Prior knowledge:
Blueprint (H helix, E strand, L loop, with lengths): L3 E11 L5 E13 L12 E3 L5 E3 L11 H11 L8 E6 L2 E2 L7 E8 L2 E10 L5 E7 L1 E4 L2 E7 L13 E9 L2 E9 L3 E6 L1
Parallel strand pairs: 3-4
Antiparallel strand pairs: 1-2, 1-14, 2-5, 4-6, 5-7, 7-8, 8-9, 10-11, 11-12, 12-13, 13-14
Amino acid sequence: MSHQFLEGKIYHKRFEPKVHEFTYGFYLLNIDLGDFQSLKNQKYFSINRLNLFSFYAKDHFGKNNDFIQNVKELLEKFNIDEDEVSLRFITLPRICNFVFNPISLLLIIKDEKPIYMLAEVHNYNGGNIIYDLKLQEDEDNKYSAVITKDMYVSPFFNRDGTYFFTLILKEDFLSLKIDYHEKKKKLNSCF
Length: 191
């Protein structure tokens, strides 16, 4: 499987301080990092340079202009052997040089099943954090992980709490659901 353009919808529901919800059309790129170089020199898509759609390495996982090097350093940091896995990167590219990337995912796949998900979360004031999520297979093609929140993301929520991730991954389908709880459910967000 090579690169994919994933078209879908974002659903977001905040339960406090008052209920607020919305749905809108959205898309993501599902990039096969084993074939990353094939993205270079496309008519409307560029790596590390301006185009209608562009991908800048410095936007993801480090400050190096070599994205693959950033990924290798990240895998080393989390003790993941890159020789035994395939890698998929799920992200939103820059559009006319505007970057909006609340979350990007590095999926680490072994024996055709995702075993880890490194979730890079950005907040509204330029901060970012990488959550190392060991995925548990709940059912066929459905995976989950739980992690303690460790960054202030929204003015509506505290810094603490727990994220519950649910990933459904099939050859031509991806769904990501994130529930956020403090003492009770505060947020539900899905793609």
